[in-house]
Specification:
By secondary structure, the chain is mostly helical. It has one domain. Helix content is 73%, strand content 0%. The protein is globular.
Length: 134
């Protein structure tokens, strides 16, 4: 029996379709690229909350000193941490995520392509194709 599709599942597909139209399939389906963007967002959140770069470096050293985990399990752990953080911050993770998806859909895709290509020029990602949203 399959489970009914949630609003988050629909938003996931919507965000993936948007990303593919902005960056191209190769960039979107590259899991290393995706995890690099997740790491970037996590570091930006840490910075926004006042975490210092030394703590980030020590944590990175600690994680890389251990054997790699299983991606599916680590994704679940990331999701749980996001939910608990949202609760501590007094916000709805679902609402904040929906707001962010809605916001990116209103921006010119060239804005995101330029940002992605700037990261790629620094060796921090893949360059994207010139695309337009249909």
């Amino acid at each position: 029996m399959t489970r009914p599709e949630s609003s988050r599942d629909k938003r996931q597909r919507q965000a993936a379709a948007w990303a593919e139209s902005c960056f191209g399939r190769e960039v979107v389906e590259d899991r290393r690229e995706r995890v690099t963007r997740i790491l970037e967002e996590a570091i930006e959140l840490a910075q926004a909350e006042g975490l210092d770069v030394g703590t980030v470096a020590r944590l990175s050293d600690r994680v890389f000193a251990k054997p790699p985990g299983v991606p599916r399990q680590e994704l679940g752990g990331l999701g749980v941490c996001l939910l608990v953080y949202a609760e501590a911050a007094g916000v709805s993770a679902d609402a904040v995520e929906a707001e962010e998806v809605a916001a990116v859909l209103t921006r010119d895709p060239a804005h995101f392509r330029d940002r992605q290509n700037a990261k790629a020029a620094l060796g921090l990602g893949k360059p994207c194709e010139e695309r337009t949203i249909d």
